[in-house]
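Our platform keeps sequence and structure together, in a single record for each protein. Such a record has a labelled line for the sequence and another for the backbone structure tokens. Nothing more is needed to write down the fold, since each code stands for a local backbone conformation. For reference, a complete record is included directly beneath this paragraph:
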Amino acid sequence: MKAIKIVSRKSPLARIQALLVAERISEACPDLQILHEYKTTLGDSDLTTPLNKMPDIGVFTNDIRNDLIDGRADIAVHSWKDLPVDLEEGTEIVGTIERADMRDMIFIKKDSMDKANISILSSSPRRERNLSNFLPLCLPFKTQISFKDVRGNIHTRLNKLIKGEDDGLVIAKAAIDRFIDTKRDEFLNEKNELLKTIDHLKWMVLPLSHNPCAAAQGALAIEARQDDEEIKSIISKISFESVFNSIEAERMILKSYGGGCHQKIGVSNEVLETGTLLTVQGETEEGEDISVRSFSSNSHKDYFDSINKENYYPINRQEQTFFERKLLADSYAELKSIKNAGIYVSRSNTIDGTDLIDDSNIIWTSGIDTWKSLAKKGYWVNGTSDSLGENNSPEESPFAEKKWYKITHADNTDSSKQLLPTYELEPLELSARLQVCDYFYWMSASSFQLAIDRYPEIRNKNHACGLGKTFDLIKKEAENTVAFLSYDSWIENISNQMK
């Protein structure tokens, strides 16, 4: 084969995605000529009918698929979430490249802050259902939220927001990232227009724990004829098997609830170094609420073999209160002086005030509880590590490089960011029960270190903690350390083991 033809939609984003696949093919097969064809689909032509009112999710893909069937193209590149869960006979998904960000973003007009009622543009029943629950808790002002259907490409939707009377817009972050990241001159105007538009808006990256993505969001599907073994061989050289399997798992879960863009269900299957994190949230067509967030790790197997009701610690969160926090009087003055930077807030009690962080800064939190706490104090939070740690879910400043500061305690020395301590830890008396237990869950590396300094014999016991940096630090000190989603998840596993 001397040439391969790729067919895709003709929108700027679809062309960028097709070119990403073409780049991977060229790297693997440098002698292969790559041709492109771009088509307008039914979904591109009809910009008035809401997506969830259209008869089939294949409105963005069926016209393209026909070119494969008829032999006018060799592969098709799609946004995988646009494909029906079950393809018709004749073609199949033969591979995918690396997945972009799975999350959604929300943009809100700066002059819509503090409005009693705001209208959010969205094309997804999933987003409307899940964000109706999340946004009231995480916006820094009280408001009534309504949703309105919107159609068109990324730039069209943003222009509708800027020029219209609505207040916000929800978009897949992968779409924004692919424009920001492209280095191709042919998309420079679209990229600059996007950056200029976003400069007038407030933005948030929405956490998967409360707003799981559409199945396969951020992923590209490479479709080919079922009988084209030569094309399959080429695509196998660039395909990411782990990404492919993760996406197929999401699609099968969605299929179990009926599948399709009409569903109010998000499914995110995150592959982490320590295991797989599945989040399913939404509402079935029968009105049944779904809320699943589970972490699977091979390390959990047989971990609790010797557990009993007396040999685990702590039995509740209060039992692991190891420190008092003492405010550092001069720290807030330095914090208030920081402008146009990134501020990473590790705990809600590190910020004890309502006007300590300038509006020019990006704010990122370690988890959702810290986000909610800051929102109550009037801070606009841009995103969160979602309790997965800075390594698994790092802070971001997608539209401009920022210097990052981490608000933490005085003894913290492990961070790639500039540390700004606002409090110090004063150790309390430890419970003697620590020395007779075999299983431990640690809320922080500081608590673990204090405990093994006092009772070094527990170092070789069974330890557990969350999925972030705490796990990395404790694992260095105690080999038998296992990651869990949360303390509550650890307790649930213990309860199940003892039944």
